[in-house]
From TrEMBL:
Keywords: Coiled coil, DNA damage, DNA repair, DNA-binding, Nucleus. Residues 266-353 are annotated as: Disordered. It is found in: Nucleus. The lineage of its organism: Eukaryota, Amoebozoa, Discosea, Longamoebia, Centramoebida. Residues 163-190 form a coiled coil. GO terms for cellular component: DNA ligase IV complex. This is Non-homologous end-joining factor 1. Pfam families: XLF. It comes from the Eukaryota. GO terms for molecular function: DNA end binding. GO terms for biological process: double-strand break repair via nonhomologous end joining. Residues 266-285, 306-322 have a biased composition (Polar residues). Belongs to the XRCC4-XLF family. XLF subfamily.
Length: 382
């Protein structure tokens, strides 16, 4: 599968994280880890897998025949359909990538960078008394511009959007909590007593932030940075990818519409004859092109046309080298051909009509979304 198709196929899939201990701890140094970020998409007969360390990108795409071959290589004793094999591989990958502690202890993984630049991601999981093994042999994404564009659009931009949205949500939640505290304080001032089970201290934003920065979970995040999406961040990521897909589709339709712009009518094209250019003091397109191609010191003469049949009858000796100025001779003037005359075919007409209908459908869809949002706002105020 082409690399562009693989990247497009994985654009809407969420990110996961594989944390691998580095070799520094084996040498007596501090405990360090390396984080790899992965994307994957599985079907009943194939899968696509991508992994990056934010510097390089590796991909692998396998169809049914490849899965059968790899099953025979890694698990020759397992007689299981392809769909079941892919389900086991996907489950093992998900358990480790999203950090399911209750399952990840049974799944072991290892990442090795080969000498030829390929990356090997090895998995093994315990199923009853058998250890199921699988290896993703990923090829590097060689194009530097393509690699940078992928990391920018699929990792950095979503991360910035998610961070910005979470900051706004946190700010709004702090305001809501402050209003709730003021409401509770007003109830207490009126003599209303709350049960001890629901009594809470007044919210302190600065103290909350200090406790979070000093927590063990934040320290673990510093050691093992991850990019795993939960329900909230997953919705933000889906909205972002849908927005990017809509923008790309609109760009494609806009380019197609500009390429399929309507030509001039026959009457308008016939009015633009060479005499029109002469009367206006300008040159026709053909004459302007010939003038640019000729040397400035040579006189402008018309080159007589020579058909293929005439050239074959007269023989090679009668053919003249018209590129040489000394061999040029005036001949009968060629009949002026109108370059703007154009007859539109029925296929082009139907294609333009289809493009117009598609653009109108997109505009109507956008208008319907605005109408739905307006209706929701009205119901919120009721």
């Amino acid at each position: 599968m082409e690399t562009d198709l693989v990247i497009d196929e994985l654009s809407s899939e969420p990110w996961g994280t594989l944390v691998v201990p580095a070799t520094a701890e084996l040498l007596g140094g501090p405990e360090t880890t390396t984080s790899y970020f992965i994307k994957s998409k599985f079907s009943s007969a194939s899968y696509t897998f991508l992994v990056t360390d934010l510097t390089s990108v590796w991909v692998q795409s396998c169809d049914r025949a490849d899965v059968k071959r790899l099953k025979q290589e890694f698990n020759p004793l397992v007689d299981t359909p392809v769909a079941r094999i892919l389900l086991l591989v996907k489950q093992s990958l998900v358990d480790v990538a999203i950090g399911r502690r209750e399952h990840s202890a049974q799944v072991k993984h290892q990442i090795d960078l080969q000498a030829d630049g390929r990356l090997s991601v090895q998995f093994s999981t315990k199923i009853d008394f058998y250890r199921f093994k699988w290896t993703f042999d990923c090829a590097p994404l060689t194009g530097e511009e393509q690699r940078i564009a992928f990391l920018r659009t699929s990792f950095l931009q979503p991360l910035l959007v998610i961070t910005s949205e979470l900051q706004q949500q946190l700010r709004e939640l702090k305001n809501i909590i402050a209003l709730k505290d003021a409401e509770i304080a007003e109830y207490r001032s009126k003599g209303i007593k709350l049960p001890k089970a629901v009594q809470t201290a007044r919210f302190d934003p600065e103290g909350f932030e200090d406790r979070r920065l000093a927590s063990s979970s934040f320290k673990r995040t510093l050691r093992e940075p991850t990019f795993s999406l939960d329900d909230v961040t997953g919705k933000i990521y889906q909205k972002l990818t849908a927005h990017h897909q809509d923008q790309e589709e609109k760009k494609v339709l806009s380019r197609q519409a500009s390429c399929a712009s309507l030509p001039l009518s026959t009457e308008s094209a016939s009015a633009l004859t060479p005499s029109t250019f002469e009367s206006s003091g300008s040159l026709s397109p053909g004459e302007s092109k010939r003038k640019r191609m000729r040397p400035a010191a040579q006189p402008t003469v018309d080159v007589p046309s020579l058909s293929l049949s005439e050239a074959s009858d007269e023989g090679p000796q009668s053919q003249q080298d018209w590129s040489s100025p000394s061999r040029r001779s005036p001949g009968p003037a060629r009949e002026a051909v109108n370059p703007l005359s154009y007859q539109e075919s029925p296929e082009e007409t139907s294609r333009k009509v289809a493009l117009r209908q598609r653009l109108e459908a997109l505009a109507k869809k956008k208008e319907d979304k605005k109408q739905v949002k307006t209706t929701k706002r009205k119901f919120q105020f009721i």
